[in-house]
Amino acid sequence: MTFLVNELTMIWKVLNGYRDPTNVSATPKPARSTASIPETNDTLERTTEKLTNELRLKMKEFIQSKPDLYCQVLKYQPVVLEAIHEEMKTAFGVSRLSKKAVIAFFDEMGIIFTSSDR
């Protein structure tokens, strides 16, 4: 089972532009943005609906920082939309983050999710 998780992790990294820092022939990974997500509700809503590269990167890093969640994603197991949405809002320090933006990100990344709203 560990072999499968390792292989899926490698595939995820390749598909999502991860660069191995030990590989000197690889193109260097762009510097991480230190800018924060806009705080105003109007700006935040427009930002999340457009799924900016910065927000996309923050969401990707959020998933990769949670080993259990990351493992679920790699195994194509469904994640609960509302739970992840609330965790992201807390982690990003914002009170509003559009569910549509999270759904759009999940769709782009091929992440399977369920919703308790259905």
Strand content: under 5%
Number of helices: 6
Uncertain regions: pLDDT < 50 for 5+ in a row? 24-40
Largest β-sheet summary: 2 strands, parallel
Order of helices and strands: HHHHEHHE
Got a strand count?
2
Average pLDDT: 78
Radius of gyration: 15 Å
Terminal Cα separation, in Å?
Answer: 32 Å
Class from secondary-structure proportions: mainly alpha
Helical content band: 55-70%
Strand order of the largest sheet: 1-2
**Approximate shape:** globular
Secondary structure elements and pairings:
Elements lengths: L1 H14 L25 H10 L2 H13 L1 H8 L4 E2 H12 L6 H11 L3 E2 L4
Parallel strand pairs: 1-2
Structural summary, described in words:
The protein has 118 residues and is mainly α. It has a domain of 80 residues. The protein is 58% helix and 3% strand. The protein contains 6 helices and 2 strands. The protein has a two-stranded parallel sheet with strand order 1-2. The protein is globular.
What key attributes describe this structure?
2 strands; single chain; 118 residues; 3% strand; mainly alpha; two-stranded parallel sheet
In short:
The protein is mainly α.
